[in-house]
Design a protein that fits this description.
homodimer; 363 residues; alpha/beta; four-stranded mixed β-sheet; 14 strands; 41% helix
Amino acid sequence: MPKLNSLQKKLPLTVKKERDAVVLVNQLLLPGALKFIRLTTYHEAIKAIKKMNVRGAQAIGATGAGGIFLASLEYRGSDVRKMISFLRQAGRQIMKARPTARNLAWGVEQMLKIAQGANVKIIRQKIDRAYQDLLQSEVKNNLLIGKYGASLIKDGDHIETHCNAGSLSAIWFGTATAPMYTAHLEGKKIKVLVDETRPWFQGSRLTAWEMSRANIPYHINIDSANAFLMSHKMVDLIIVGADRITKNGDTANKIGTCALAMVAKNYNIPFYVAAVSATIDFSLNSGKEIRIEDRDDEEVIADVSYWHKSVAPKDAKAYNPVFDVTPAKFISGIITEYGILKPSEIKGLEKKIRREEKGNLVL
Amino acid sequence: MPKLNSLQKKLPLTVKKERDAVVLVNQLLLPGALKFIRLTTYHEAIKAIKKMNVRGAQAIGATGAGGIFLASLEYRGSDVRKMISFLRQAGRQIMKARPTARNLAWGVEQMLKIAQGANVKIIRQKIDRAYQDLLQSEVKNNLLIGKYGASLIKDGDHIETHCNAGSLSAIWFGTATAPMYTAHLEGKKIKVLVDETRPWFQGSRLTAWEMSRANIPYHINIDSANAFLMSHKMVDLIIVGADRITKNGDTANKIGTCALAMVAKNYNIPFYVAAVSATIDFSLNSGKEIRIEDRDDEEVIADVSYWHKSVAPKDAKAYNPVFDVTPAKFISGIITEYGILKPSEIKGLEKKIRREEKGNLVL
């Protein structure tokens, strides 16, 4: 892809490693302003995740891993065992910042498992290098998702997506957006239908911003317009991201994804999930075991704002589950760095990944 | 129902006839303030409908009929034919104010068809009485919908609804809410799950306000949380309103209704439409013939307001269809003043209504 450079100029790295810091795009300020947050402690990493300065499965995972990298710099002593114990307790705290995205625990685990060595300095160096590698390898994975996913996209296609599984949700290039960016760079004329994604408007705020930056034509729609759009043949393909995928292919993603998949099934519109393998939780057999985060009522009520003010009655309460689980039977395929898999093929990936990791250890 | 009085104190008449005016609840100010608009010309009626000071199929229909009543007062001459021609052109203009709700044309037609008589004064009196009758008879119809619909509700039921097909969408008591109010007055403990209903938040603003006034427990949820709520067995029954029902039972209603019905089908949750027969358009065979109103992009984009400001990129465009059509096969039943009908029974209602109307004419 000759024009990848051009996209690099338009879309910043969402999570970036510096010598002694992790720098994040402050997603709470988009699309109004593109500003960055510099983290220097693992507590700051936890805060950025909790407050949603950073969100999106891969970006959260990379920030969580970054928290361990920062903790390795924060440890002042020279005792290897104490250092590892310090890193582990940091890891436990980081993993609790948000419960649903598998990538958060994965990111922390990736760092902790290489945290061993003869002395503190060596461990620190290993973590530094491993963190650098993790960020790079995740971008490579997303480029692969782009390559595989773009094969599903025809010239002229209208692609609907929910929430933001874009470059901002990743380190760069995104998961659900990766096939769109690749198709766009290949010269295919596509249009993206952006679900606004209540209650946080990640679609209107973030995906729309990305499409605008990348010069990909897009339209925003309210989440529940999906049946109208599909019944009017305005959608050719749907690609969404994932926060956690279980062995049977069930997929937790932003609230509203499941309804979208069910509506798509009724209209026979292909519904794809795009995710790196780090999103797969091989310890869970099905989506029923996934813990779904329930956030504050206020996110739904107080920002119900027509004319920019709260409009629900003062005594209003709200249900605010922020993810839902799409059963595997509604998913046409899962686009990963290993290719496009049927949901039923997900469990087979476990052995493959374990074998590769073993290979890496031998090297 | 001994406590109907108590509800009357809490919920105002949405459309009220005075001697020379039509008084509406100004729905744009709710839930912040309960204020009224006094219309004295049919142009004001058109404006109130277009600007959505009044919305909801029945309330729009009653306002449209009120427009003809006002036009009959506005006509200054003494020529019967000129008066009728004046009323007809007013009717044509009123019907164009919003395209989707069948009740608007119905309301205008009800007034125009009795607009005949020996002189202007007699016609004016006939219209005055007919308008009074229309308002009263619509409330009676809604009480019947309440009676029939409440038979579907068990003590302890959680009932989900979309948009506002409440008292505010009607003259009083509502359509989708009628079974809820009746069940509540009968002493059944119910809880209402209110879809916030983007982009105008009629759920959070209006249905929540009604439930709050009527002391019925409720929770607001984002529209696309429906699959989560149903998969967690938090919904026993769904009742929504309708803007236009075709002969085959297809139903146009607020955007998002169709997706809700499709999700409900997947979870085997009963999905009912509540509407007066005036909502049925016997001239249309199926929902494919219904014209769906497309409103301004701005309603979706500019009020995408987290922290009370617009957050979509400046160049953003949006699709903003404001209704969708739920195919009859997703509808468990249609609750009307004639009882609960299967969608396939709707077409049979035409003869019955024609017979009744003939009967009325003979009287």
